[in-house]
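User: My instructor asked us to take a sequence, write out its structure as tokens, and then describe one feature of it. I'm not sure where to start. Here is the sequence I was given:
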Amino acid sequence: MIRSPLFRTRFEKAASGAPSAARSSRGTSISRTRLALALSATLLGTAALPAIGANSAVAAATTLYVNNNAQANCTDGGTGTQAAPFCTVAAAAAVVQPGQTVQIARGDYPESDLTITRSGTSGAPITFRGPSPFEPGYGGSASIGTSKAPGGGLTVRGAAHVRFEHFGVYAAASRPVVLADGAQDVSFDDFAAFGDTGARITNGSGQVRYSRGTFLGTKGPTIKVDGGSTGTVVTTNLLVPGSGDDRAAVLVDNAPNSVVVANSIEGVCAPGIVLTGTSTGAVVENNVINPTGDQAVPCGGPDAPQDFGLSVAQSATAGTKADYNTFDAQSNTPAYNWAGTTYTDQASFTAASGGQGAHDFLAPISRFRGPDYTDHAGDAADETAPGMLPTDRFYKTAVEDPTLPDTGTGSGIRDRGAEERTDVGSAFTPSGPTRLLDTRLAIGVPSTQAVSAWGTVDLPVTGVAGVPASGVTAVTMTVTVTEPQVDGHLTVYPHGGAAPDSSSVNWASGHTIANQVTVPVKDGKVSFFNASGGTVHLVADLAGYYSPQGSLFHAQGPTRLLDTRLAIGVPSTQAVSAWGTVDLPVTGVAGVPASGVTAVTMNVTVTDPTGGGHLTVYPHGGAAPDSSNINWTAGQTIPNLVTVPVKDGKVSFYNASGGTVNLIADLAGYYATTGKTAFYPGGPTRIMDTRRDFADHSNRRPAGPVPAWGTLDLNTSATNGLPLTLNVTVTDPGAEGHLTVFPYGDAVPDVSNLNFKPGDTIANQVVVQQSGGRISLYNASGAPLHLVVDVFGTERY
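Assistant: Let's start with the prediction itself. The structure tokens for your sequence are:
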């Protein structure tokens, strides 16, 4: 999807000749108006570009200015200073010298026939540059021609060593938007092209690069390389061919050693990449060819069988390499025509062509990621291919998608096509439990001192306890409050900002209570805010962290795995003895796979304890670590969500008390080495507080408690069917009972997420699948209660 600065509305109007819909390089459907706006991103810039200062002596010697704005005092009869800039690009082009930059200000430049003939040198090229959004004071783009008055496009004739960056170009009918005519060592980067005819590189041009461009609805080839041109590079462009008899996205004709890589070709059932004549020694890699966009509608008509994704004539096969391309399998157009023979599948093409296309994919291409869709373009590019740029067409660097295998070369995380998918979520690495914070023992803090009233603790969580120093997006910890002087609550949140209006742990004076917290990490830290008028001690035990690599969550349940009262998960109905341990099998049961499971998430409840104590849940096979997941007093029933690494298919529960206790564990899901969804940490964001009139973008409700045996249904913004990570707080209950959180529309399951007594305020983390974007919360008690619900993250495809 496209997230970039936008053109002014003139570019919206320019797209009127484009097809009614076009798609992004990863299949995003975009209306013509939205796409024309979004295309401005291709005119914007790179962070590597220098800012140009008005009083810089170097800038005065090396920069010519073009600015036709009303207040610019421009003149084509001057020398192009910043104080008296040229009015037209042509005026600057007529006098520019090697090593100089022509800096073109925001605005429309109605150049009737802009032709560049002056050359730089290999060590001192000439540069024409439009505004970059990374420079101070950026205010908009520069356009050669306008939608109402298109000009003759941009021509480079016989010139060498010239660079063009960040333009929009409008060309009149039958005029190429960009023409390289006998040009040598010329590059065009970050262009949005509007016109009937696309770019043409011809007449013996050499070493011309066209990159990060965007073409919509051109008639004839979108980019044509011919006339004996050599060494042309066509890379990282979005190409949407239009109508016409010769509609190929890229046509290379009698142009040897051309490189066509990392382009996204979409839209209107046109041919993709065509090599004819003596176009030998070509490299065609990492392209995504999607003739139907995301419509999944086969191309029809008499021309459909000839509209190949990749067509290479017999005369162009010598020395040509075609591989790592992805073709839409829904288009009804053959993927290949190689040396005059058509191939409709990758295997037969690879076998017949001597190994070409060995890493190609023919698969459905769609913007809709879901349980049945595999993205064959992500993390699958040949990073070592010639012509690959360090960033995509929006200057985004590659990031690893944790839901995909790294099947590309080099780093393995580059995507095919012109756009990197960077909104990829995180995977979980179970760890510990390891103590990161204990204010009683100066762990994680400089001294043994309780947190002051209304005080904050900033805790480093990266580069410690096996957590990587970078790339960590969130951590999961069991956070325990102990020795509080007065009632209050704790807010755990990303470091660096004000504490949000949410709570992670709630307590009464003198009580010790724990809750699992998953919180985004910022600057390598998380923060703890003591929202009370008294001091309190804090303990935090690491359960795992989120980063680009790790395990993926699979919601499962809720299903009861353990109940010592009913001999579920244990051989007999017997409470756990003082200082006793229960080893619980968690793989190969209740829908959890028998292998490949790295951790499980369970809601664990302690009930009927005969004395005070705490419970430690930990990986099977070792001694219980010095950590706690649940703390209790005699007779208390209390739950907590626990995420724990799995070892030998089991987890262990240690009763750290001198009395017996019954244990209940309800499965919420498991982590495995493969999966389709990733975690997107966020917030905390409050989506309901029944104590007050509440309204946000999803929920609107007048203040009032949830009635006895009543259900509260909440809208969420999560993807349908996928889980949310919540912190749910019960407050002011009028009777003893429990709360169950479950997918909307399901029957209430026989499990509990929170247990409470009259007057309690108690919180617990909850992982719950939602259905139709909704969840339900059931008050299993004989009296009303209030609920507060905060979101800490979601799973997404």
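For the description part of your assignment, you could build on this observation: The first helix runs from residue 9 to 14. Try explaining in your own words what that tells you about the chain.
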